[in-house]
Amino acid sequence: ARAEDKQTLEETLLELHNVAVLNANLGLSRTNHNAALYIKLLGKFIDSQSDACQRIGSLLAKQDTASAEREAHTLKGLAGNFGAIALQHSAEWLETALRDQAMPDEINQRLARTEQDLRELVQALCAIKGLQADKKARQSGITPDQRQQAQQVTDQIKRLLADDDASAPDLWEANAPLLRAFHPQAEEIEQALAAFEFE
């Protein structure tokens, strides 16, 4: 199985090198050329950042510019780490507009540009079989509203865990199907909760 894993890893890397909007060499250099780690982080990036621009749009609709700026800052940093230079630049351009409280039209124009760069990257990454086929399958059946609900429940569970509150596992259990669809590491979380390993 090891040799097979290595082959899959090399095939995935080869495909990553063919993604036009990604400088995989730069990204790999940031992980000390640990290919498995780089691939895992890219999978996590898809999970956490695919809807970043929608989140920024929602925050702007609520006039929460500070949180929108934080989201853009996170996106910029991650894109830079992975070697997604175009996305890094457009997210930085957006972050600057938010920080300087630019006119709404200017912000919307920059958000649209960032969204386009993000979509291009995510589509290219999602087409790579070895990257996160299993996670995508788990998340595909979940609507944006359900994602939001899962995020709220997750935040509630985190608060309970911080207080060493033993009702955290019950709350997980009550929402298990939704949370399993939302969290890539659901199995690990469930095992830890079952063993009361709240850390």
Description of the structure:
This protein is mostly helical. 79% of the residues lie in helices and 0% in strands. It is built from 12 helices and no strands. It has helices at residues 2-17, 24-30, 35-49, 52-61, 65-82, 85-99, 104-126, 129-139, 144-162, 168-174, 176-182, 186-194. It is globular and about 45 Å long.
The helix fraction, in percent, is over 70%
The number of helices is: 12
What is the succession of H and E elements? HHHHHHHHHHHH
Mean pLDDT: 85
Spans where pLDDT lies below 50 across 5 or more residues: none
Structural class label: mainly alpha
In angstroms, what separates the terminal alpha carbons? 32 Å
Strand content: under 5%
Assign an overall shape.
globular
Biggest sheet details:
none
**What is the alpha-carbon Rg in Å?**
19 Å
The beta-strand count equals 0
